[in-house]
Design brief:
alpha/beta, 3 domains, D-Maltodextrin-Binding Protein, domain 2, 15 strands, about 300 residues
């Protein structure tokens, strides 16, 4: 489709080029050949009378005009995506739609899995694409490609609406065959026993143990580092190791494995989980309906939590 002489498909091409910083990367993203992508860039340059992107080292960087256009094009595409994915009216009993949700395994295990089971009873034709949070998914959310983003306070986007869901706090897990010596975990035992820490992302950033004691003089005996919650539990069972999990997650795994759960023997900040949606989705009846079901389900779950 053309508008004032511009093939509007080229706006999608331009957005991909800005995001990928390379012709080959943008071509892969849009399932185009590299030559077709190069041809599209040439047409964009001709239309706007500017190079738009220039090669700098192994990346293509936007010119001043390209940078100015990037924000405007992103806003237009976000609005278009929100418009075409929003049905006129939303009847959960009959509508067929896929929702894209970004949430941690922790949130899925303790809340979201049960909520989506209940949603299925009233909206059987809905499907869900779930992913754990990464920098890539944060960018997708900013582009309006994610319906709901469930995250802690630290990672909320200031320019999009959000709703508080629940609070949690850290707890200590141990194999129930190697319980705490006095029936409750003391600070001394916490520091002496070998422990499992979990690290996320390409940089292997510590999430619990090392983060908790960072900036203090305390030393812990980290014996195993893993990158997922199931491996934390597997590394604790049938050993004398301990590990930190959020309390609701600890009790979730305690129902599935032979684990004992203890209060953390030192103060620690509580975490707050929130659900966020793109500002362009404020009037999306489907997103608002699903968000409300999640909020209701969380409140029911936390009211019954141990």
């Amino acid at each position: 489709m053309r508008f004032d002489g511009l093939d509007l498909n080229l706006l999608v091409v331009f957005d991909a080029l800005i995001e990928e910083s390379s012709v080959s990367g943008a071509a892969r993203r849009l399932n185009m050949s590299q030559s077709a992508m190069s041809g599209s860039l040439a047409r964009l340059r001709q239309f706007f009378g500017d190079d738009l992107l220039v090669q700098v080292g192994n990346k293509m960087m936007p010119t001043e005009t390209g940078l100015e256009l990037a924000g405007r094009v992103r806003e237009v595409l976000t609005l278009v995506r929100a418009t075409i994915t929003t049905p006129i009216g939303f009847d959960p009993a009959t509508v067929e739609r896929q929702f894209r949700i970004v949430a941690s395994d922790y949130v899925y295990d303790v809340m979201l899995a049960e909520i989506l089971r209940n949603v299925r009873k009233v909206a059987p034709r809905l499907t869900f694409d779930l992913a754990t949070p990464t920098a890539h998914h944060a960018e997708c959310f900013q582009r309006g490609e994610v319906d709901l983003f469930i995250t802690i306070d630290d990672y909320l986007f200031d320019d999009h609406p959000a709703r508080f869901l629940f609070e949690d706090q850290l707890a200590v897990i141990a194999w129930n065959g190697a319980p705490a010596r006095d029936g409750t975990l003391t600070m001394q035992e916490f520091l002496e026993r070998p422990c499992v820490d979990i690290c996320f992302g390409p940089g292997r950033a510590p999430a619990f143990v090392q983060r908790l004691i960072g900036g203090t003089d305390l030393k812990v005996n980290v014996e195993v580092r893993v990158d997922n919650f199931n491996s934390v539990v597997a590394s604790v069972v049938e050993t004398d190791r301990i590990a930190l999990l959020n309390r609701l997650h600890a009790f979730h795994f305690g129902r599935l494995y032979p684990l004992a759960v203890y209060p953390l023997p030192m103060p620690a900040p509580r975490i707050r989980e929130n659900v966020q949606w793109h500002s362009k989705r404020r009037s999306d009846a489907g997103v608002q309906w699903l968000k409300d079901r999640i909020v209701e389900g969380v409140h029911r779950h936390t009211a019954a939590a141990p």
